[in-house]
Amino acid sequence: MQTHQYDVVIVGAGGAGMRAALESSTRARTAVLTKLYPTRSHTGAAQGGMCAALANVEEDNWEWHTFDTVKGGDYLVDQDAAEVMAKEAIEAVLDLERMGLPFNRTPEGRIDQRRFGGHTRNHGEAAVRRSCYAADRTGHMILQTLYQQCVKQEVSFFNEFYVLDVLLTEDLSTGEVPEGTPVRASCVVAYELATGEIHVFRAKSVVFATGGAGKIFKTTSNAHTLTGDGMALALRRGIPLEDMEFFQFHPTGLAGLGILLSEAARGEGGILRNSEGERFMERYAPTIKDLAPRDMVARAMANEVREGRGCGPEKDYVLLDLTHLEPAHIDAKLPDITEFARTYLGVEPYTEPVPVYPTAHYAMGGVPTTIDAEVLRNPTDVVGGLFAAGEVACVSVHGANRLGTNSLLDINVFGKRAGIAAAAYAATADWVDLPEDPTALVIGEIERMRDKAAGERVADVRRELQETMDANAQVFRTAESLEKARDDVRALKKRYLSVSVQDKGRRFNTDLLEAIELGFLLDLAEVVVAGALAREESRGGHFREDFPTRDDEKFLHHTMAYLRRGATPDETEVTLGTKPVTMTRYQPMERKY
Amino acid sequence: MTAVLENSAAPDATPEVGAVPSFDVTLRIRRFNPEASEAAAYWEEFTVTAYGTDRVLDAMHKIKWEVDGSLTFRRSCAHGICGSDAMRINGRNRLACKALLKDLDPSKPITIEPIKGLPVVKDLVVDMEPFFASYREIMPFLITSGNAPSAERLQSAEQRERYDDTTKCILCAACTSACPVFWNDGQYFGPAAIVNAHRFIFDSRDEGAEQRLEILNDKEGVWRCRTVFNCTEACPRGIEVTKAIQEVKRAMITRAF
């Protein structure tokens, strides 16, 4: 075991983690721990852009952006947070430009902007050009640019270090620590992939920027590595997760594969059609049609398929039609995604429409934080020295449904805030003592998994988890389907206890890490389903066929899910609480587009 | 040794209507276990059943998940954007997640080896540190002087287009590890580092071109390139790598960029 000491430890080197590192490393001694190489993170897969009311090409302002974000999130957005994000968006984009990000340009040489789903002028009048972009690889360019700046600032990275535990000064998992009691983070425990060695990183501030958990689903745009590590670690240590029942299904995944085709395709004029060639979004969202928010488009697509207007031999997808666009325009604005269609489906988007179907894309929920990225352990108390930003966190700026481009914005705005806040906290805080044996839990789990001679296969349990989540907790949900998912997940959690790995080695044991990641997925799936069952209404990305309307009387609040320890160490149960939604300017209205 | 999946038997003569056509494919994989008593590399063959849209990565996952959990490789996004899974597939560098099995003639065994020129850590995993060290050396970040402007820097669409191609790089190392010069001389900066220097040298906002050209004027710099074009062929992002290197060479002579 090795022990390290840093003022600030950042977990994750995607957009949020590196944006935080750029701030904290100039102010405090900082280390970034990442399970991948920094440029491998899934921020790089984001395509369409990052919205900010620059008004470079048409009238716009941050208040309209705030409104769109609140309405897009079906009024579950904390409006103070949305306001911060929309205001700071402008500086966030300019920061990136000054760091060298190669944005597409207007004829005047300014940052170009394009339309994106749910982003409108003057509170819904018409689609507005707000998304700043670099072709259809904006996320790639953000990730590269942030890494370039980290190289320039000589940020310390620990690559291929898996963080497997975060230690707190109080045991929150019992649910018995009274409100108001000070609780702090003391260290994280990490597993070095190359050697199998365990490292303890003592820190005054810990920032979680570990990304999402799309791998709880089978059909997903997410990377294999998006297993919700940070969310699950926090949950296991007694920190709640907020609004996990809200998961975004992106409308345009490549059919059967789930690979993302950016909403920018529709922003540039692409049209969704059913088997009759009908532009069906005209029926569902008469004003902005194909550029309605993702939850509505995904549901409309699933509904077309369900009513027999799907395409293909199985009638199980719809078509994204770009054939009316000029090939030169496609090449200039959408080169990557059209290449995906060619490579993976053998479809030529110049001349043929592309088969698409919704794909699990983004967790609106996550570790609850304040607008300064401080982690909350209940609706009011923060955990001293623990911060979270990006998809792992729930500020909540996305509410029940995130608008396209607001994730790249979120990581930049709240990543920066997290870095500043973490360094500021570390500047004044004392060191807390490490617990007696900080690595006990992690080493115990690793050895149990590695030393078991034979048992259940990781891949079997994971596949069954993903299949039940796709079948029972996807775009359409009912009490019946969710109960099925809940029972399946519980049964799988039992089977997980007998999982064993074949690779018994110490060096580069990815077999072992996949087993540990599966444990995270199971815990998170249980929370998603528990929240979805309890929320007997339909709002944003959460649609209950048995409760098809929004119910502000009963459910205009955030869900707070806690994992509480049961009678034995292997027994846990999810208990649900609530947290009020912060409203400033906007009262809930019916959501029409 | 050959491991065969139980369900990899030939499909029935009369497949179910609407069933996705499947085929068997054999992967011949270069293995290396650093912890074995006699740590030497060897070949191992696996036969699995694959489907029409499956990529090499899918077949490798099938092996790892159903046959041999110790098979080790890096991967993340699985659609050619994160750059984790560059491998030598049938003698050519590709991303395992972008190489479709049906395009590789699955009637013959498909050979899979780690990319060349970097130390092998385990199976298909190589030590990427020397690669990233070269990248860091060419100052891969925007260099400007004076105060930062309050708004954005202006750049025309033409100026932006000038370096567009080299901004696509995902640092997968497919190009550098396809270069015979790099195989023979690990000190050579390699195509990827030069591509990333190009991305800034030709960016109208950047003022560090002279410094980068000085770095690449080294004996291990651009002049080692023999225009073999392996790098261009290997690039999964379609970057015209050799052309970019030639443009850097020209800039070195003309000092025009």
How would you characterize this protein structure?
Helices cover 34% and strands 21% of the residues of chain A. Chain A has 593 residues and is α/β, with parallel strands linked by helices. In chain A, the strands form 5 sheets. In chain A, strands 1, 2, 6, 7, 8, 9, 16 and 17 form an 8-stranded mixed sheet that branches. In chain A, strands 11-14-13-12 form a 4-stranded antiparallel sheet. The mean pLDDT of chain A is 96. With 257 residues, chain B is of the alpha/beta class. Chain B has helices at residues 56-66, 129-137, 157-162, 180-184, 191-201, 209-216, 230-234, 241-254, and strands at 2-4, 22-31, 42-51, 86-89, 92-95, 110-113, 120-122, 125-126. A 6-stranded mixed sheet of chain B has the order 1-3-2-6-4-5, covered by helices on one side. A two-stranded antiparallel ribbon of chain B has the order 7-8. Residues 1-15 of chain B have low confidence and may be disordered. At the A-B interface, helix 3, helix 4 and helix 10 of A face helix 1, helix 2 and helix 3 of B.
Name some characteristics of this structure.
heterodimer; A: 593 residues; alpha/beta; Flavocytochrome C3, Chain A, domain 1; Methane Monooxygenase Hydroxylase, Chain G, domain 1; 8-stranded mixed β-sheet; 4-stranded antiparallel β-sheet; globular; B: 257 residues; Ubiquitin-like (UB roll); Fumarate Reductase Iron-sulfur Protein, Chain B, domain 2; 6-stranded mixed β-sheet; two-stranded antiparallel ribbon; 8 strands; disordered N terminus; Fum_R/Succ_DH_flav-like_C_sf (chain A); transport (chain A); oxidoreductase (chain A); FAD (chain A); electron transport (chain A)
